[in-house]
Specification:
CATH class: Alpha Beta
Number of strands: 11
Number of domains: 1
InterPro entries: FkbM_mtfrase, SAM-dependent_MTase, SAM-dependent_MTases_sf
Protein name: Methyltransferase FkbM domain-containing protein
Strand content: 15-25%
Helix content: 25-40%
Structural class: alpha/beta
Organism: Actinoplanes auranticolor
Low-confidence stretches: none
CATH superfamily: Vaccinia Virus protein VP39
Radius of gyration: 17 Å
Order of helices and strands: HHHEHEHEEEHEEHEHEHEHE
Length: 260
Amino acid sequence: MTFPSARLQSLKADPANSGILRSLDYYYGNAGHDAAMDALYAQFVKPGDLVFDIGAHVGDRIGSFRRLGARVIAVEPQPLCSRAIGALYAGDDDVVLIEAACGASEEPVTLYINSRNPTVSTASKDFVAAADGAGGWHQEVWDTRVQVPAVTLDGLIETYGTPAFVKIDVEGYEDVVLAGLSRVLPALSFEFTTIERPVARRCLDQVAESGSRLCNLSMGESMRLEFEDWITPQAMAEHVSALPHEANAGDIYCLVEPSR
């Protein structure tokens, strides 16, 4: 299912959305990129599956999951982004939007918003500190702080059921999100950055303890897996540690079983 393009154009034309215009331009309207994204996620998501999109931003991954026939629970704490998602997917009963952060508990959290580049807004003050002075991050400023409600993965599962796949992209807060999960999931992904490699290590330790034994990697927005043969969480941790700073970011994919 796709939304009418008029909704996207209406969002772009609204001056109130100037802060997310760059994201809307980047993440929507590139058919080749969408096709590659769908091919990547089709390895983990089948028609009728339930998917959690944690850190949905402006909802481009929601679009991919819906094109693949999945039901989506989208969690996004930034008001501007959540309003965009609500407008784009209005009337789609298979998209549930939760305006909250996802964390280790349901206690409210402080969200550090980057108004100029909302895609790197975060609930992690350590992430903000790590970016300070780091190469490629000099122009980033987190200029607003807001308190937002929080949910946990366990709580979402209790309410909506066990997902076939969980995508986590929360700018250095991924390990805190996984701390709110006490169950084994078939497959998940989480973002990592080279300015916060210890977060990736903690995430890999957490998924290994929960039963994930196969990992792969997609760098940046390449929408392709780097390894033909999946590797162990320990091997992935070593690989991430060896990446150059300029690699910047990617998503690590984790599986319990080789295939579903």
